[in-house]
Amino acid sequence: METTKLFFFTFFAAAAGVIPPGLINMSVVKTSLSEGKRNGLIMAIGASFVVFFQALVAILMSRYISTNPSVRVILLRLGLVILIILSIYFFVKSRLKQKPIQHKKFKSKKSFFKGVGMSIINIFPIPFFVVISTLFNTDAKADYDAWSIFFFSLAAALGTFATLYLYIFSFIRIGIDRRLFAKRSNLFMAILMLILIAVTSIRIYYE
């Protein structure tokens, strides 16, 4: 029963965590609009695949991180460096001349690894799932068993995929102009990176 509660609690927490526009969901939407729904779904699967292991790492590290604040600061500083690099990348790309968008076939493997890559550089799910695992485990002396750890990680991956799936179909059904979205999305991503850089800097300052 506790494992079932843990699964649904983590599933909805993970799904909610991906709702705000961010690096992963906006990248998946961009791929769906520029390369087709199928590639977008495969990219979402790749991203969710990584989330499984990020949640696994988070739940195993939750007690260690809670007793070692310096580790949390290191993760934030690493994330800050990555965000700065990404903001420069997206800004430069937004200034380049946009090519006509064409649907390309046989890119499933590339889309999967694109999702994996985007999810790997996004380290924020790890501290997020550390908090989730800590909230559910109210007994500081209790340890999750193997099945609880597995279902926690699985729920995190499935919750992430569920929201990404809704993002893909919502954007497609709304009928957004694909070329306009492709033109503006890189600038949006650059601005988003700057906002996240500011938030991360504030968190590092108050740690």
UniProtKB/TrEMBL annotation:
Protein name (database record): Lysine transporter LysE
Membrane topology: Multi-pass membrane protein
Record bears the keyword Transmembrane: yes
Residue ranges crossing the lipid bilayer per the database entry: 6-29, 41-62, 74-92, 112-136, 148-174, 186-206
Organismal lineage: Bacteria, Pseudomonadati, Bacteroidota, Flavobacteriia, Flavobacteriales
Keyword tags: Cell membrane, Membrane, Transmembrane, Transmembrane helix
Localization terms from the record: Cell membrane
Ranges in a coiled coil: none
